[in-house]
Specification:
Blueprint: H1 3-10, H2 22-43, E1 46-52, H3 56-72, E2 77-83, E3 97-102, H4 105-111, H5 114-117, E4 125-130, H6 137-150, E5 155-161, E6 167-172, E7 175-176, E8 179-180, E9 185-190, E10 213-218, E11 226-228, E12 233-235, H7 237-249, E13 252-256, H8 258-263, H9 270-280, E14 285-287, E15 300-302, E16 307-316, H10 324-329, H11 334-357, H12 366-377, H13 388-418, H14 428-433, E17 437-441, H15 442-449, H16 455-458, E18 462-465, H17 470-481, E19 492-497, H18 498-507, E20 514-516, E21 522-526, E22 529-531, H19 537-549, H20 552-560, H21 563-567, H22 583-609
Parallel strand pairs: 1-2, 1-3, 3-4, 4-5, 10-13, 10-14, 17-18, 17-19
Antiparallel strand pairs: 5-6, 6-9, 7-8, 11-12, 14-22, 15-22, 16-19, 16-20, 16-21
Helix pairs in contact: 2-3, 11-12
Length: 616
């Protein structure tokens, strides 16, 4: 309890009489007490009471009500704010749970409650006790709800007390069947003495929007959001999310900005999209590969992030193909080749020493001896030496080279069969040490600049594409790799969204064409943006968290692009061999059998026709 405010409130002098019976005052105070204990006391440790009156008589009434409340509500922290007409004064403090005591619509407008919460992202609760003449209550109540809806105050209730002592609570439902943007009062509760008729003091107004239209500002960014405006069909990861939200909340969608982008043959940047939302003040939400970023929090409200978009590094596998010389030398390491050359020289030296000291035997010069040893290493026939010791030497050399040739042939077949490459970079440090050039979009560059650990990447030679489309990064990477100046092994890598890379590889039928660096670069939190202090924020937060918790986002991401397809090197429609796959074998074998039968018949006929002769 704010004791200073209470003493000031108690010491005020009021002019005008308040002749309402004490029993009615007790009844009204009891209604407020039950509401406070049933609702505010359950969800918060404190609330604020704001008193604003244009006429003197209701002030005395509220003074009596407050005295009764002080006696009964003693377990909560209460902040008391008195608004005096003609003496505006701004009093800061949390305005989440509010009890407003006013005597007219004008007195409510004097409080200017929307100015305290216009820059917040949450939803507040306003329980307004309107003490007005019975004839003026409907008009003022309509004005209160119009004010609340105009400033996105969705949890706004008005309690009234009639001259007969009846205490009622009204609210408004902006999304009613057949009436959108509706601010007409609707009765929801009544105090029956010991308790309220219903304990649902603030009924949900967003569970069912009854087909009302929400304006969606969007941009096409594959694979996250794609749309056919003409047929109202959306797909992509965020397209599925928007459809699911529309189904659960039962609202229709009207897209804004897509026709302008299509007419200009362009795609808005993220900053342009959100600027349009702030300046236009028409769209309810913005979607389309929009990152949750602190720089937008001053003007817009972000929903709970629905997807963590991974940024990864990747290289072209063709840029790391082995050259012809590298293929021939790749099966053995350099040490193995050195050992083979040393063995060849040792055998050649022993042979030459032997034939120098021996008369006869192998005739020819030293070159012929070397060629004989080389021919034996390849398995070619050579003239055998006369001495048994040389025969054993050649036989051991022949067996040794036979094993080496078998190993070399098997490894060479493995290289050609599985299309092996040079050692591929496996971390960001490998890319930095290798002197690679980075290609990325402007959005990725902005995120990298905010992370101090990635300054080594920014120190590399960097190519930034002007577009925010991820496919442009892929296109530029392939274009730079095909330049003659890039050499046989161009040191270029791209930074791109993993989902975009998977989807682009599948769409272009490029399975096995890229290598993803296993170390993740960073994660971008994608979110839906709303107008600042939007009434949709709390409900959309709850829905997005529930959709993400059950794994629907990952399921949709798997539908958009398959990592299994991306990593496959050979595109078989099915791994099992069917009969239709063997028809060529059957035809070939059948033709050979027919030829052999004809040859056999020809031999039999020839043998009988020319017995003992020479068939030619």
């Amino acid at each position: 309890m704010n004791v200073t405010s209470l003493l000031l409130f108690e010491s005020m002098k009021y002019s005008g009489a308040q002749t309402q019976a004490a029993s009615i005052n007790q009844h009204v105070a009891q209604a407020l007490r039950v509401f406070i204990e049933d609702f505010y006391q359950r969800i918060a440790p404190a609330f604020i009471v704001i008193l604003s009156c244009r006429r003197p008589s209701p002030m005395n009434f509220y003074r009596n009500i407050m005295q009764l409340l002080y006696e009964s509500v003693d377990t909560m922290i209460i902040q008391l704010v008195l608004v005096e007409f003609g003496r505006p004064r701004r009093i800061e403090g949390p305005r989440t749970h509010n009890l407003l005591l006013v005597d007219s619509l004008d007195a409510l407008l004097d409080i200017e409650i929307h100015t305290y919460t216009a820059m917040s992202d949450g939803s507040e609760y306003y329980f307004i006790f309107l003490q007005q003449r019975d004839a003026l209550i409907p008009q003022d109540m309509q004005g209160v709800f119009a004010y609340c809806w105009r400033h996105q105050l969705i949890n706004c209730n008005v309690m009234t007390q009639s001259s007969g002592g009846q205490v009622l609570v009204h609210t408004y439902f902006p999304y009613a069947p057949g009436r959108c943007n509706n601010s007409s009062p609707a009765r929801i509760n009544q105090f029956l003495g010991p308790a309220w008729q219903s304990r649902d003091y603030f009924p949900s107004k967003l569970r069912n929007l009854h087909g009302c239209q929400l304006v969606v500002l969007a941009r096409r960014i594959s694979p996250f959001f794609e749309v056919d405006v003409k047929h109202q069909v959306v797909w992509g990861l965020e397209g599925h999310l928007l459809k699911e939200l529309s189904r659960r909340m039962n609202f229709s969608i009207m897209f804004d900005g897509l026709e302008e982008q299509q007419r200009n043959h362009t795609t808005w940047t993220e900053q342009k999209l959100l600027q349009q939302m702030v300046q236009g003040r028409v769209a309810h939400l913005a979607i389309g590969y929009v990152r949750k970023h602190i720089q937008y929090s001053g003007n817009l409200t972000a929903v709970f992030p629905h997807y963590s978009n991974r940024i990864i590094g990747f290289v072209l596998l063709n840029a790391h193909n082995l050259t012809s010389l590298e293929i021939w030398s790749f099966p053995f390491q350099a040490l193995a080749w050195v050992c083979l050359v040393v063995c060849f020289l040792i055998i050649s030296g022993l042979v030459m020493i032997y034939f120098r000291q021996t008369v006869g035997g192998f005739r020819g010069d030293r070159l012929a001896l070397l060629l004989a040893v080389y021919a034996a290493s390849l398995g070619l026939p050579v003239e055998p030496p006369e001495r048994v010791s040389m025969q054993l030497l050649f036989a051991s050399w022949l067996c040794f080279t036979l094993v080496v040739r078998a190993m070399y042939g098997a490894l060479l077949f493995l290289i050609l069969r599985y299309h092996l490459h040079q050692r591929l970079p496996d971390s960001l440090q490998d890319l930095v040490d290798g002197g690679y050039t980075a290609i990325m979009s402007r959005t990725t560059l902005q995120d990298l600049r905010e992370v101090t650990g990635f300054q080594n990447i920014l120190e590399l030679r960097t190519i930034v594409v002007s577009s925010e489309l991820e496919e442009e990064v892929l296109r530029q990477l392939e274009r730079f790799s095909e330049r003659d100046s890039a050499g046989s092994h161009p040191l270029i890598f791209g930074l791109i969204s993993q989902d975009a890379l998977l989807q682009l590889a599948e769409r272009g039928h490029r399975a096995g064409a890229y290598h993803m660096v296993s170390q993740q670069v960073l994660e971008q939190q994608l979110a839906i943006y709303l107008q600042k202090h939007s009434h949709l924020a709390g409900h959309l937060d709850h829905l997005v968290m529930s959709i993400r918790a059950v794994g629907l986002l990952h399921h949709w991401a798997g539908q958009v692009a398959s990592e299994r397809y991306f990593r496959s090197r050979y595109l078989y429609r099915e791994k099992r061999i069917r009969q239709s796959d063997l028809w060529a074998v059957y035809v070939l074998v059948g033709a050979l059998y027919i030829c052999s039968v004809f040859a056999f018949i020809w031999e039999v006929v020839s043998a009988r026709r020319w017995p003992g002769g020479n068939v030619a």
